[in-house]
Amino acid sequence: MRQIKREFELRDQEFQYIRDLVMTQTGIVVSENKQELIYSRLSKRVRALNLGGFDDYIDLLEDGRNKDEMVAFVNAITTNLTAFFREGHHFDYLRDHALPKIMERNRQSRKIRIWSAGCSTGEEAYSIAMVLAEKLGFDTWDWRILATDIDTDVLSSANSRIYSADRVTGIDAQRLQRWFRKGGGRNQGLVQIAKELNDRISFKQLNLVKPWPIKNEFDIIFCRNVVIYFDVPTQKRIFDGYARHLAGHGNLFIGHSESLHKVTNRFESLGHTVYKKRDS
Ligand SMILES: C[S@@+](CC[C@H](N)C(=O)[O-])C[C@H]1O[C@@H](n2cnc3c(N)ncnc32)[C@H](O)[C@@H]1O
């Protein structure tokens, strides 16, 4: 391992312990060359807790009584990069193809259920909500979004509805005007999303590699840029789980660098990382 002068020493066996713990707690595969990343994410915890080094930090994590630190550990490890209308073609597909089909199918129940799995700070779920609100309004359809993540910090941030103004620069003016309010005074530089969108979203903690406390069937599942961090058997378990929770007419959206090829045969590609369930 490359030795750099650091505030704390991260010994090889400590790094190996942390890699294993990340895998069992989150499913995320930390490759051998990611010592720097682990150091930069976790040295903050060692410092915040006033510990002498990674050996003390591991002792703390091993002591099963410290549940709070395990939460902070997981929160520190996750990568939460996201954006409003990221991979914008999915939102066009949602509006122009997926929703009309679901509306036809669900015309009796007038219910639509969508899951944003690995929702990070909420931009994906709010983008979905904007599309639904613009197409369906709030009165005639009971549409709801479940937005889940393993990381409790990102979920609190999502629920606050507050974003830095530079996060919304790519959103078109009409949408901005309709769904965002600019902060003034000490909230200068911030924007807040409309509460009526948040009212349709349940942000909940859910670890995709542990049993899911979910009974519902969803019309659409978004799981984008999440499984990229998992090994193939874990990806397979998750996608097979989505197949069980997706309605027959539903769609699965995955990230542009992800693929179901050689992972699961439960889905059929419709192109551009949009899938439907294969007839069984
Ligand atoms: C890169 S973000 C993707 C956000 C959004 N889906 C997008 O495409 O913009 C990946 C998210 O997956 C979450 N994640 C990682 N491991 C997870 C797990 N085991 N269960 C649930 N969420 C997880 C992370 O906390 C992070 O917020």
UniProtKB/TrEMBL annotation:
<dbReference type="GO" id="GO:0032259">
    <property type="term" value="P:methylation"/>
</dbReference>
<feature type="binding site">
    <location>
        <begin position="224"/>
        <end position="225"/>
    </location>
    <ligand>
        <name>S-adenosyl-L-methionine</name>
    </ligand>
</feature>
<keyword id="KW-0949">S-adenosyl-L-methionine</keyword>
<comment type="function">
    <text>Methylation of the membrane-bound methyl-accepting chemotaxis proteins (MCP) to form gamma-glutamyl methyl ester residues in MCP.</text>
</comment>
<dbReference type="InterPro" id="IPR026024">
    <property type="entry name" value="Chemotaxis_MeTrfase_CheR"/>
</dbReference>
<dbReference type="InterPro" id="IPR050903">
    <property type="entry name" value="Bact_Chemotaxis_MeTrfase"/>
</dbReference>
<feature type="binding site">
    <location>
        <position position="82"/>
    </location>
    <ligand>
        <name>S-adenosyl-L-methionine</name>
    </ligand>
</feature>
<protein>
    <recommendedName>
        <fullName>Chemotaxis protein methyltransferase</fullName>
        <ecNumber>2.1.1.80</ecNumber>
    </recommendedName>
</protein>
<keyword id="KW-0489">Methyltransferase</keyword>
<feature type="binding site">
    <location>
        <position position="124"/>
    </location>
    <ligand>
        <name>S-adenosyl-L-methionine</name>
    </ligand>
</feature>
<dbReference type="InterPro" id="IPR022641">
    <property type="entry name" value="CheR_N"/>
</dbReference>
<keyword id="KW-0808">Transferase</keyword>
<feature type="domain" description="CheR-type methyltransferase">
    <location>
        <begin position="3"/>
        <end position="280"/>
    </location>
</feature>
<dbReference type="GO" id="GO:0008983">
    <property type="term" value="F:protein-glutamate O-methyltransferase activity"/>
</dbReference>
<feature type="binding site">
    <location>
        <begin position="207"/>
        <end position="208"/>
    </location>
    <ligand>
        <name>S-adenosyl-L-methionine</name>
    </ligand>
</feature>
<dbReference type="Pfam" id="PF03705">
    <property type="entry name" value="CheR_N"/>
</dbReference>
<dbReference type="InterPro" id="IPR000780">
    <property type="entry name" value="CheR_MeTrfase"/>
</dbReference>
<feature type="binding site">
    <location>
        <position position="149"/>
    </location>
    <ligand>
        <name>S-adenosyl-L-methionine</name>
    </ligand>
</feature>
<dbReference type="InterPro" id="IPR029063">
    <property type="entry name" value="SAM-dependent_MTases_sf"/>
</dbReference>
<feature type="binding site">
    <location>
        <position position="80"/>
    </location>
    <ligand>
        <name>S-adenosyl-L-methionine</name>
    </ligand>
</feature>
<dbReference type="Pfam" id="PF01739">
    <property type="entry name" value="CheR"/>
</dbReference>
<dbReference type="InterPro" id="IPR036804">
    <property type="entry name" value="CheR_N_sf"/>
</dbReference>
<dbReference type="InterPro" id="IPR022642">
    <property type="entry name" value="CheR_C"/>
</dbReference>
<feature type="binding site">
    <location>
        <position position="86"/>
    </location>
    <ligand>
        <name>S-adenosyl-L-methionine</name>
    </ligand>
</feature>
